């Protein structure tokens, strides 16, 4: 049987691809891998009463947290603090960013932003969920406590981004700006193995992913795009297929492998969109672009947006280039 490359081997082998290669990013990716294994262990038994259900308190997003939101958040924070060379982190589940004050942290150069559990509404019904992470080099001087500025960087400054997907198999998919690579977890061996090297979005796809239940609230341009996907045009292989799980990571992953586009527009119920620019949009956008796809806020490259708040939301359109361009075209028609 062909011996697959483990994630650990791959990270070390490709370390030199990285401009500042001193092993810090390697240590950080390894810490994320470990935290991912720990969270995966809990998700696999999410049906048990002590794991499923709500934790009871509301997070900064105004959502009632699931027990697994809190557990995943704690596991990532403790593992990144103890093993990752980072000076601070920000989580979708925490109001403020966290500053690590030990000397080894203050002298570190990276910050991590993450969504510990993406697709929380699906946990108790056993539908695929994920974890999303985004890594930046700090801009404040090394040796000083990390500042808000270090987190409010445009997506184009990301040095690495990725996600864990906890589905029929558990995978870790990431980029450091040298393509997108996917690793499948083998629970029997306890390691991630390279299973999807150099993943690419097809130029065009036939799947659209949007919560059509919000149709009445959508901008005209989005309503027109949806109707365009549903028109009969065999030459253009329309109508498209509709696929939507309610987990961004799962919808993105399927669309990247099979060809499709994900949409979460603004709407009267979500005037700024729903997804979080820093924890969800930017990391998925970096992966999409590295895989030959496109990620837009409807009017331009989402990674060029200058964030102003830790938890700001944005409209998000991401997937095959042709379809994202079509969405931008329909939206611009309306202006
Ligand atoms: O239920 P809706 O409004 O369609 O929203 C679904 C979207 O919200 C999310 O669940 C938000 O993520 P969280 O679960 O991390 O809060 C996305 O994964 C998903 O794409
Ligand atoms: Mg999320
Ligand atoms: Mg979440």
TrEMBL record:
GO terms for biological process: fructose 1,6-bisphosphate metabolic process; fructose 6-phosphate metabolic process; fructose metabolic process; gluconeogenesis; sucrose biosynthetic process. Binds 2 magnesium ions per subunit. Signal peptide: none annotated. InterPro entries: FBPase_C_dom, FBPase_class-1, FBPase_N, FBPtase, Fructose_bisphosphatase_AS. It comes from the Bacteria. Transmembrane segments: none annotated. One of its GO terms (molecular function) is magnesium ion binding. Mg(2+) 1 binds at residues 92, 115, 117. Residues 202-330 form the Fructose-1-6-bisphosphatase class 1 C-terminal domain. Residues 6-197 form the Fructose-1-6-bisphosphatase class I N-terminal domain. Its main location: cytoplasm. Pathway: Carbohydrate biosynthesis; Calvin cycle. It is found in: Cytoplasm. It catalyses: beta-D-fructose 1,6-bisphosphate + H2O = beta-D-fructose 6-phosphate + phosphate. SUPFAM superfamilies: Carbohydrate phosphatase. Homotetramer. This is Fructose-1,6-bisphosphatase class 1. The lineage of its organism: Bacteria, Pseudomonadati, Bacteroidota, Flavobacteriia, Flavobacteriales. The gene is fbp.
């Amino acid at each position: 049987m062909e011996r697959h490359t483990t994630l650990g081997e791959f990270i070390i082998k490709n370390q030199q691809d990285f401009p500042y290669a001193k092993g810090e990013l390697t240590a950080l990716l390894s810490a994320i891998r470990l935290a991912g294994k720990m969270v995966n262990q809990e998700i696999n038994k999410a049906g048990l009463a002590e794991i499923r259900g709500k934790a009871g308190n509301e997070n900064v997003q105004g959502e009632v947290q699931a027990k697994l939101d809190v557990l995943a958040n704690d596991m990532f924070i403790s593992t990144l603090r103890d093993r990752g060379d980072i000076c601070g982190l920000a989580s979708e589940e925490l109001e403020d960013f966290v500053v690590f004050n030990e000397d080894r942290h203050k002298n570190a150069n990276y910050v991590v932003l993450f969504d510990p559990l993406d697709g929380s509404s699906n946990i108790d019904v056993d539908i695929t969920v994920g974890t999303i992470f985004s890594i930046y080099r700090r801009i404040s001087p090394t040796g000083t406590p990390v500042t808000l500025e270090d987190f409010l960087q445009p997506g184009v400054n990301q040095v690495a981004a990725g996600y864990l997907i906890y589905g029929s198999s558990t995978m870790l998919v990431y980029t450091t700006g040298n393509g997108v690579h996917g690793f499948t977890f083998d629970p029997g061996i306890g390691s991630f193995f390279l299973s999807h090297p150099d993943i690419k979005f097809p130029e065009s796809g036939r799947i659209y992913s949007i919560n059509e239940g919000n149709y009445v609230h959508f901008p005209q341009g989005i309503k027109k795009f949806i109707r365009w996907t549903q028109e009969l045009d065999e030459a253009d292989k329309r109508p498209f297929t509709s696929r939507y799980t309610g987990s961004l990571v799962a919808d993105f992953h399927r669309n990247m492998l099979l060809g499709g586009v994900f949409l979460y527009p603004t709407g009267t119920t979500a005037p700024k969109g729903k997804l979080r620019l820093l924890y969800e949009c930017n990391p998925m956008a970096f992966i999409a672009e590295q895989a030959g796809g496109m990620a837009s806020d409807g009017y331009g490259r989402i990674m060029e947006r200058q964030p102003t708040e830790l938890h700001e939301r944005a409209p998000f359109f991401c997937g095959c280039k042709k379809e994202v361009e079509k969405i931008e075209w329909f939206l611009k028609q309306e202006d």
